[in-house]
Design brief:
Structural class of chain B: alpha/beta
Distance between the termini of chain A: 54 Å
Strand order of the largest sheet of chain B: 4-3-2-1-5-8-10-11-12-13
CATH superfamily of chain A: Glutaconate Coenzyme A-transferase
CATH topology of chain B: Glutaconate Coenzyme A-transferase
Radius of gyration of chain A: 18 Å
Helix content of chain B: 10-25%
Low-confidence stretches of chain A: none
Radius of gyration of chain B: 17 Å
Largest sheet of chain A: 8 strands, mixed
Strand content of chain B: 15-25%
Number of strands of chain A: 11
Mean pLDDT of chain A: 96
CATH class of chain A: Alpha Beta
Number of helices of chain B: 5
Number of helices of chain A: 6
CATH architecture of chain B: 3-Layer(aba) Sandwich
Order of helices and strands of chain B: HEHEEEHEEEHEEEEEHE
Oligomer: heterodimer
Number of domains of chain B: 1
Number of domains of chain A: 1
CATH superfamily of chain B: Glutaconate Coenzyme A-transferase
CATH class of chain B: Alpha Beta
Chain lengths: 235, 219
């Protein structure tokens, strides 16, 4: 079996360079590649274009790369939770392209499935449609949206094996599997790295063919954005 | 006149046994508290979950298990988890029976604006454009007028659009209204104690009302 293991995040991201386009998995702070983000901050690569559903919060996630001015452009569906992001956007330091969430996911999927473009009704008749080809199928209009091209995809999984096969846990799956499929080079960080053969092939979410480098991450914080609970005292 | 919970309560009556439902943020989230007992409904969260359960007990929250509002939640017996592409795939393929979401403006031809105010920090459309472009049944939950006292039910939207000709029903603190296929708002029900004239004055788009418009039944 081909071995995809690298020792850690620094080695995994060693050839990411200024100006590259990166995909980063996660929804909010759930399922984000924490170790890769820390390594990118340490490495200090700049002028990055980041494709990610959100842009983190001020002191975590992609927010850390905004603090260090490493991001030139964000391509996201929702970016609300970040004051530094807002400051850079309003001052013109940061470019932002907002696209519908399903379009974001599907443009990743298209890349991973080898399809140059897809048709979606999301955004028809809105400013999202400006400059895009519209096609009518069975009486309904659709926008043509191109597959993403990303130099690297950085994803976070729960378990992975040395062959690069990945299993995600709960809703931390989100964008991770489709981004894993879409990167020219895909780097997976996992909470638990096991030998090939230790995972049941029937349970694999992302086949190792899509994953080029894998390592076991450390010290996951897994921050919660909105801690909503029911008090046990209520009963 | 209804409060937010009243609006949620009235919308919950539109939910039928066997429905898969996507609830947006704000008043729509409250609808989950009023789903009629004795029916089976599955809530979708577009970050990749069918079968959204209540908030966890204190100490049992799981950072890997959140809803689209990034709140910690739980799963239920029969829940399923999937990736974001499949989540919007089932929305696009109209497997979700009902979408309930908030709005800043709705026009009399069913256009909706709910994601952007020019001149203000724009956070993004999230999944709203995908939902309104594909859902077969969309109910808007919103206040009838904005904070400046201006009607949010308009001849045409003034804010950047989220979707066109997609809204079928609106529930506000004053009324239940259908958007007619040929254009215009049809007054279906009045909130308790609210007159047709009052609703008419709060509606800037074309309003059609029968001679006798019933009051909402909330319980």
């Amino acid at each position: 079996m081909i071995n995809k293991v690298v020792v850690g995040p620094e080695e995994a991201i060693k050839d990411i360079k200024d100006g590259d386009t990166l995909m980063l998995g996660g929804f909010g702070l759930c399922g984000i590649p924490e170790n890769c983000i820390a390594a990118l901050v340490k490495k200090g690569v700049k002028q990055l274009t980041c494709i990610s559903n959100n842009a983190g919060v001020d002191d975590f996630g992609i927010g850390l790369m905004l603090q260090t001015r490493q991001v030139k452009k964000m391509i996201s569906s929702y970016v609300g939770e970040n004051a530094e992001f807002e400051r850079q956007l309003l001052s013109g330091e940061l470019e932002v392209e907002l696209i519908p969430q399903g379009t974001l996911a599907t443009r990743c999927l298209a890349a991973g499935y080898g399809m140059p473009a897809v048709f979606t009704p999301a955004g028809v008749g809105t400013e999202v449609a400006e400059g895009k080809e519209v096609r009518n199928f069975n009486g309904k209009d659709y926008l043509m949206e191109y597959a993403f091209e990303a130099d690297f995809a950085l994803v976070k999984a729960w378990k992975g094996d040395t062959a690069g096969n990945l299993i995600f846990r709960s809703t931390s799956r989100n964008f991770n599997p489709v981004m894993a499929m879409a990167g020219k080079v895909t780097i997976a960080e996992v909470e638990e790295l096991v030998e090939a053969g230790a995972l049941d092939p029937d349970q694999i979410h992302t086949p190792g063919v899509y994953v080029h480098r894998i390592f076991q991450g450390k010290a996951y914080e897994k921050r919660i954005e909105q801690r909503t609970v029911i008090s046990k005292l209520a009963d | 006149m209804l409060d937010k919970n009243g609006i949620a309560k009235r919308i919950a009556k539109e939910i039928k046994d066997g429905y898969y439902v996507n609830l947006g943020i704000g008043i729509p989230t409250l609808v989950a508290n009023y789903i009629p007992t004795g029916i089976n409904v599955v809530l979708q969260s577009e970050n990749g979950l069918l079968g959204m359960g209540p908030f966890p007990f204190e100490g049992e929250e799981d950072p890997d298990l959140i809803n689209a509002g990034k709140q910690t939640i739980t799963t239920l017996a029969g829940s399923s988890i999937f990736d974001s592409a499949m989540s919007f795939g089932m929305i696009r393929a109209q497997k979700i029976d009902l979408t309930i979401l908030g709005a800043m403006e709705v026009s009399e031809n069913g256009d909706i604006a709910n994601w952007k105010i020019p001149g203000k920090m724009v956070k993004g459309m999230g999944g709203a454009m995908d939902l309104v472009a594909s859902a077969k049944n969309i109910i808007v939950a919103m206040q009838h007028v904005n904070k400046a006292g201006e009607s949010k039910l308009l001849p045409s939207c003034t804010l950047p659009l989220t979707g066109v000709r997609c809204i079928k029903k609106i529930v506000t603190e004053l009324a239940v209204l259908d958007v007619l296929p040929e254009g215009g708002f049809k007054l279906i029900e009045r909130a308790p104690g609210v007159s047709v004239d009052f609703i008419s004055n709060a509606t800037s788009g074309k309003l059609y009302a029968d001679d006798d418009v019933p009051e909402m039944l909330l319980d």
